Structure formats: structure tokens, C-alpha cells
Amino acid sequence: MKAEDNLEKYADPAAYDERYGGFSADVELILDELPERPARIIDLACGTGRISLPIARNGYEVTGVDLHEGMLERAKEKAGSEGLDIRFLRQDCRHLDLPAPAALVVMAGNSFQHFLTNEDQDLLFESVRRHLTPGGRFIFDTRNPVMSELAEPDHYEEVVETGGQAVREEHTETYDPVSQILHCETRSSDGVSSSRDAISLRYTYPLELERLVRQHGFLLEHRYGDWRRGKFSPESGQMVCVCRLM
């Protein structure tokens, strides 16, 4: 699957902002881990700038990278409305070509799970490594594969409010243990019209992740169970990784 074919969930950037824009735990940790100024920061899979903007507000030179043009346009509008000078670029994170290295690269929102194959993950780490200054850090998160949750197909419904309108969503999630990919489908209806979208997400196991980080020349300084620095355990929902380039 091409990366461009796995972006249906982001078709409406404004709705995405409305649904996820209020999450701040990752922003708080990242702001706490910022290097001394002046420094460059790269925000990968930056979306609508939820993390790029607060970093820039703190006086850093920020480059936001994403593959989705619509998300980038919304990020540019938001930055412009605040007078923030942020460079937003449409690039594939596996093949970054940025003008200068950074002291910190971040990737939040479980975007790491968009890299579906071992080759994709390797290319991402190689790309990040090329764009870090010596001793620079890479902070990212990914969902922890809790087998009790993934073992059986999941089907559930919920009602969410989008644009002041109630929308009923029907979700179906099926995990393939061979590819380690969760295939998710959502059917939405507001009573007048209906739509469907899908996304595929790769799960990486804790020891697998440790080896991946190490083989690309990084030291895994911390692995938290959530963005609030909770202790990582087998039942943790996430792995939040703080890695340093060795």
C-alpha cells in the first residue's frame, strides 16, 4: 500500500481539528523536552500544526512535514493567523530533504503506525538520522500491541458531534497477526448522507522496537506508557519513546 492511499481519515482537516485538537499531553511533554534556544525543531506528520504551533510560540525555528496537502494548508492558515513563521512542507517522511538538520525531531499522534513495513520503518529512521544534529533526539509514540484487545475483531458504534451535528459512526477493526497490521473501517451517517473511510495501522512489539531503535544508532533513553510519563507495562496503551542519536 502506498502512503498516499492510507490517508482517508484526514479528508476533512477542520473536522480532524475539532475532534483531536484539544489533546495536549503530547504537547506538554515535547515542550518540556525542548533543547536550549536557539534550535531547530522538525515536526513529522505534523497534520494541522497542533504541535508545530506551540513549539514556534516558544521561540523555536520549526519545520512541519506532512504528506497531506489539505492538512498542511490548514496548518499554514492557523500559523498565519498568529503571525508565526513556520515552514510547512509536503514531503514523504521516509525520504526527507530538508535544508538544515535539527536538534529535535518529533512525531506524535501515533503516526509511526503509518509505516506499515519493515522497509518503511527503516527508511523513516534513516531519514530522521540524516536530519538530526550530533546527539539530537527523536521523540515519537506508537500504540502498544495489547493482544487481549487485538485477538478478536472489534465492532462498535458511537455518536460524535461534528460541526454541531450528531454523526453515528460504526467501526470495524480486524488485526492481521502476520503483517501486524490493524485494518480499520468506519461508516458514518448523519441521517441524511453516509460515508466510509478506512485506515491501516502497523503495530510494533516492545523488543522489536528496541532493536529497531538500536540498529539505527539511537539510544532509547525513555519509554513511557503514555504522554504523561506513566510507567510502561504490558497493558499500557502506548509506547512513548525518547531516543538520542549516539
UniProtKB/TrEMBL annotation:
Q: Which domain of life is it from?
A: Bacteria
Q: What UniProt keywords apply to this chain's record, in alphabetical order?
A: Methyltransferase, Transferase
GO MF annotations in UniProt: methyltransferase activity
User: Entry's CDD domains?
Assistant: AdoMet_MTases
Q: Name one GO biological process term.
A: methylation
Q: A Pfam family matched by this chain, by name?
A: Methyltransf_25
Residue intervals of the Methyltransferase domain:
41-136
Q: Could you identify this protein by its name?
A: Methyltransferase domain-containing protein
Organism listed in the record? Edaphobacillus lindanitolerans
